[in-house]
């Protein structure tokens, strides 16, 4: 009987370890999906337009809160998230119209975007208060599903964030590498003077990039506000995470941002589960290790040093 009891304990213990590992894996992939939605827009602005947009986290927060208000009015998550993304795309466009006057001058750019981030955070606090809030997931994505080979249940919406990030990545890749607009964006980033000579308005191209980045940040805000929460300080946290992903992946690389988001998401989930006190150190240590092996990021190159 003792042997049977001991054997039962070992089986139960192994199941517990396996379930916990699966949960950490899914939490890491879910975080990676959210980070990629943020970082994909950030890497467009940071890597292609060469602007360090510190207001990107503010767009995330305002996009989430705008979607929250619209969902309360319409009762539809998809309409709310879509209109929230449109709103942040417009706000990002306005931000670019201000930044273009100092484009190429690093310190004024940084100070302007930092000031914009502070204003956005203050407006969010003034209009929505400091109490954490969250959106209700769409009816079809409420509840949980059974995980194959496990006794655990996992929220449907969290898994949909991963699918949303994959769809966004595919659309961005097709846009950048299979359309004329994408070719123009990449050419403008490489040699804006030559593109201008060809009669293309580079400022309009960069404005389009800012709008796309703002829309992605707003969509990320709606997603993050649904399975996490919207609160003061979330803009800084998500901005820092997306900045880590962009640097680790390589400036301007959508594929690099995707791979780095998965790596950072999984490392962060593992660290928070097993070494919560040192989770931040482990995350930054991962970034340092990547840059030690690949100084320009996972998919970066020496061309990223160009001004």
Word description of this protein:
Mean pLDDT is 87; it is low at 1-15. The N and C termini lie far apart (73 Å). The longest helix is centred in the first third of the chain and has 48 residues, at 2-49. The chain has helices at residues 2-49, 56-74, 77-99, 106-128, 156-178, 180-190, 192-197, 202-227, 234-249, 254-274, 279-293; strands at residues 144-146, 153-155. The chain is mostly helical and 307 residues long. The chain has one domain: ABC transporter involved in vitamin B12 uptake, BtuC. Helix 1 packs across helix 9. 75% of the residues lie in helices and 2% in strands.
Q: How would you state the average pLDDT, rounded?
A: 87
Rounded to an integer, what's the Rg over CA atoms?
Answer: 21 Å
CATH class: Mainly Alpha
Given helix and strand content, the structural type is mainly alpha
Question: How many helices in DSSP terms?
Answer: 11
Beta strands, count: 2
**Helical content class:** over 70%
- Please tell me the CATH architecture by its name: Orthogonal Bundle
Neighbour order of strands in the largest sheet? 1-2
Terminal Cα separation, in Å?
A: 73 Å
